[in-house]
Amino acid sequence: MRLKDKVAVVTGSTSGIGKASIIKFAEEGAKVVVWGRTNEEVEAVVNELKDAGKEVLGVTADVSVAEEVNSAMDKIKDHFGAIDILVNNAGITADAQLMKMTEEQFDKVIAVNLKGVYNCGQGAAKVMAEQKSGVIINVSSVVGIYGNFGQTNYAATKFGVIGMTKTWAKELGRKGVRVNAVAPGFIVTEMTAKMPEKILDAMKAKSPLGILGEPADIANAFVYLASDEAKFVTGTVLSVDGGVVL
């Protein structure tokens, strides 16, 4: 078990990549925190993990609201006594071409995907600096490296996440905290399951491997970066994308 007794927090962990990751962390021996926006969704994953004999806490908070984030961080520290790993996974999309994008669409994505990462990163960093150890993993995207049609707002947040990652790595390294980012490519989730087959085939065709990624592929990358195997890795962006951008 690579993460035995570590306290791991994954935002947006009630579905998709987040859920796969919180389950993987628990399997690797971590005490885990399921973080979502509704009590029902959080409780469902918490109960699933408890049934599997895992040590788990659930928190409900909107990452874009600093007061809710700080309250959640206090609850986690009070319960477990530490925060060893934070994965800033929560994110949304609201796609539109530049000339058609509304202010509401832009602001909503910025609030969750960029300010939310800032809020959670700041809250966890204070705890980690005090304990002189910790790992923060921010979820970017291949879109945050190369851009994407119709995603001005999303691309801006994922570029921004990379900038925050490198800045935090410089600021927090001497406090014993490592900070890295993961940039997923096309991953099979509940969202892609609703897409037409021809769109999925086109996505597969862009990868030299000819396949789409699974949530477990990203979860495995998180575990590596969170573990002592990556103790000399900080400030990096790990692309897990099947070579889609080659």
From TrEMBL:
Record's keyword annotation contains Signal: no
Domain named Ketoreductase: residues: 6-185
This protein's UniProt keywords: Fatty acid biosynthesis, Fatty acid metabolism, Lipid biosynthesis, Lipid metabolism, NADP, Oxidoreductase, Steroid metabolism
Catalytic residues of the enzyme: Y154 (proton acceptor)
UniProt-recorded Gene Ontology molecular function terms: 3-oxoacyl-[acyl-carrier-protein] reductase (NADPH) activity; NAD binding
Catalytic reactions of this protein: a (3R)-hydroxyacyl-[ACP] + NADP(+) = a 3-oxoacyl-[ACP] + NADPH + H(+)
Enzyme superclass (EC): oxidoreductase
NCBIfam families: 3oxo_ACP_reduc, PRK05653.1-3, PRK07231.1, PRK12826.1-2
Subunit structure: Homotetramer.
Descriptive protein name: 3-oxoacyl-[acyl-carrier-protein] reductase
Lineage: Bacteria, Bacillati, Bacillota, Clostridia, Peptostreptococcales
